[in-house]
Amino acid sequence: NTPGKIAAGLVYKRTNPKTGMAYIGMAKSEEFFLKRNAAHDRELDVMHDYEIMDRAEPGMPLRVAEESAIRRHGGKSTQAGPLQNKRYEVNDADYRAAGGNVPKPT
Q1: Mean of the pLDDT values across residues 24-41?
Q2: Among 13, 20, 57, 62, which is 20 to 30 Å from 29 by CA?
Q3: DSSP secondary structure string, 80-98?
């Protein structure tokens, strides 16, 4: 991030208050984040809890921020992780090349 500039993209954690299940996602803008929240809530018929985890510029910086959050929170469900995410955001080689440094948990 550039000092003094707020990054346009954000990484968020969505938690279902009924099940406790969490998902890590990203949005390229605050406006898209709000639209996505409403769509998730409508589609899954629940008012989720949302927490902004990180901010980054759209493109690879935002993808790396999302990947780092997925890794920090235990990984995707399809590999025994606790998150509802079905995939990692960036493959390991690209993640490392872009400066990512959180070890892959699963």
Answers
A1: 93
A2: 20
A3: T-SB--SS-SS-HHHHHHT
Q: How far apart are CA 61 and CA 58, in angstroms?
A: 6
Q: Say which DSSP state 8 is in.
A: S
Taking the C-alpha atoms of residue 9 and residue 95, their distance in angstroms, rounded to an integer, is 18
DSSP string, 26-84: EESSHHHHHHHHHHHHHHHTS--EEEEEEEE-TTHHHHHHHHHHHHHTT-BGGGT-SB-
- What pTM did the predictor assign? 0.88
In one-letter notation, the amino acid at residue 85 is N
What is the C-alpha separation between 85 and 61, in angstroms, rounded?
19
pLDDT category at 1 given cuts 50, 70, 90 is: very low
How far is it, in rounded angstroms, from Cα 33 to Cα 101?
26
Q: Are 72 and 83 in contact (CB under 8 A)?
A: no
Q: How far apart are CA 1 and CA 83, in angstroms?
A: 27
